[in-house]
Specification:
The protein is of the alpha+beta class and 195 residues long. 47% of the residues lie in helices and 13% in strands. The chain has two domains: 4-110; 122-194, no CATH class. The chain is built from nine helices and five strands. Strands 1, 2, 3, 4 and 5 form a five-stranded antiparallel beta sheet that branches.
C-alpha cells in the first residue's frame, strides 16, 4: 500500500506524487480536515449508524485522505491502478475520489488557491488579465467516442477531421498561455458562431 509516511521523507517524492512540498502539504491538512468534518455534519441522508462500524478503514487519517486525492489529481491514475497501489477494489478507489474531490475543491477555495472559473464579459476578462495586449482566439477539435444515437452521432461528426469530435474555443496571449477555454460544443458549430 502507498503510505504517506514514506512520501513525507523527501520533498522530491512529495512533489512527484502530489505536486506540493512537505510544508505546503502539512499546511493544507487542517483546512482539509475541517472541510471533511463539515461534510460529515451535513451528510444527506444523515448517518444511521455510529461512525466506526464495518471493516478496518484503509484511509484512516486526514493526511492519508488528503494524500490520496492530491496524488489522484496530480498523477491521474486509473481506478484499477489506484486500487493496486492501495490494495482495495477499484470501486472503492472510485468512491474515495467521488467523495474527496469536492472536499479538496472546497479546501482550495477556502485557501484562495483556485482560479476564477467563469468570465462572463470582456470587462471581467481584462480585470482578470490586465497585462494582456494581443489575444489569439482559435477553435480546437478533440476526438470523442462515437455516440450510439443517430442524431447525436450526426451532430458530433466532423467532416473536416473525418471523425467524431468535440470543439473548444480558447483564447491565448503572445506568451502562448491559455487564458480562457470555452465549454465543449458540438463540432458542427462554426468557430465564429461559438465565439
Amino acid at each position: 500500500m502507498l503510505r504517506v509516511e514514506y512520501a513525507l521523507t523527501s520533498d522530491r517524492k512529495m512533489k512527484a506524487l502530489t505536486g506540493l512540498t512537505r510544508p505546503e502539504f502539512r499546511a493544507l491538512i487542517p483546512a482539509f480536515g475541517q472541510a471533511l468534518y463539515d461534510k460529515a455534519l451535513h451528510r444527506d441522508p444523515p448517518r444511521q449508524r455510529r461512525p466506526g462500524g464495518g471493516g478496518p478503514a484503509t484511509l484512516k487519517e486526514v493526511d492519508a485522505k488528503l494524500f490520496f486525492i492530491l496524488m489522484y489529481v496530480k498523477c491521474y491514475p486509473t481506478f484499477d491502478v489506484a486500487a493496486v497501489l492501495y490494495g482495495v477494489h477499484r470501486s472503492r478507489a472510485h468512491r474515495w475520489t467521488k467523495d474527496l474531490l469536492p472536499v479538496l475543491e472546497q479546501t482550495l477555495g477556502h485557501q484562495w488557491v483556485l482560479p476564477e472559473r467563469q468570465i462572463h464579459n470582456v470587462e471581467a476578462f481584462f480585470q482578470r488579465f490586465p497585462t494582456a495586449q494581443t489575444l489569439f482566439v482559435d477553435g480546437s477539435e478533440r476526438p470523442t467516442y462515437r455516440p450510439q444515437e443517430a442524431t447525436a452521432q450526426k451532430t458530433h461528426y466532423s467532416g473536416k477531421k473525418k471523425r467524431h469530435t468535440g470543439k473548444h474555443l480558447f483564447i491565448s496571449d503572445e506568451d502562448r498561455r491559455i487564458l480562457a477555454l470555452s465549454p465543449p460544443a458540438v463540432d458542427s458549430q462554426h468557430d465564429y458562431a461559438l465565439f
